[in-house]
User: Which sequence fits this backbone?
């Protein structure tokens, strides 16, 4: 999927598909790129998240931009989502370290164990959002949980995007483990530092994905099958 995405994104950014152009049909792209339809559809979804294309029901996929600026996850732009997460989740981690109950710690530890064993990305993404909800619950303020609930769909979309294109799962597990260990220790400072580091890594991975592949030569052809 990454190879298909890189190829299509490069073609758009080099102007081979101009703004307003309609991409070839799924059947034609599958034939050209020698990939399955599920793989192609994942790549097309990623192009939409990046803001390069728009799917119009019954009409096809159209190019709407020639450069990636700010990916969108559900109702929220990545930059807006990260800004809010920093202002909410970092202090929440500190509150959680001070206020967590034994039940909160048991729940988080169990969830983290499941995440570290999970190999299916879809299942892992679902648990990723549950993890951040559980940290908010440990802060013992229902408003924090409500805020995370509001952005839960965007968090899931972002998590799936980062895992598909940035290979974030194992690194994220380690970062989650550091957060839980800080909560177990009851260290507000360490919890804040651990959550801050986690969000820093999220931002770094997003930035790496968004960087333009314009240097890819248009003569290189499509991805390998």
Assistant:
């Amino acid at each position: 999927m990454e190879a298909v995405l890189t190829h299509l994104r490069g073609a758009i950014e080099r102007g081979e598909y101009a703004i307003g152009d309609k991409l070839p049909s799924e059947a034609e792209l599958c034939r050209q790129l020698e990939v399955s339809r599920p793989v192609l559809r994942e790549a097309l979804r990623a192009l939409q998240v990046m803001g390069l294309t728009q799917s119009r029901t019954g009409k096809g996929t159209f190019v709407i931009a020639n450069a990636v600026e700010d990916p969108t996850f559900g109702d929220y732009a990545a930059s807006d989502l990260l800004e809010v997460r920093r202002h909410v989740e970092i202090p929440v981690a500190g509150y959680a370290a001070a206020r967590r109950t034994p039940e909160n710690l048991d729940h988080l530890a169990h969830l983290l164990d499941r995440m570290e064993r999970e190999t299916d990305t879809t299942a892992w993404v679902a648990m990723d959002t549950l993890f951040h909800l559980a940290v908010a619950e440990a802060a013992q303020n229902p408003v924090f949980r409500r805020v995370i609930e509001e952005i839960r769909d965007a968090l899931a979309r972002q998590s799936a995007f980062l895992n598909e294109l940035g290979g974030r799962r194992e690194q994220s597990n380690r970062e989650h483990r550091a957060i839980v260990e800080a909560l177990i220790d009851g260290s507000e400072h360490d919890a804040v530092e651990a959550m801050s580091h986690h969000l820093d890594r999220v931002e770094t991975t997003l930035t790496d994905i968004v960087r333009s592949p314009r240097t890819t030569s248009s003569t290189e052809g499509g991805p390998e099958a």
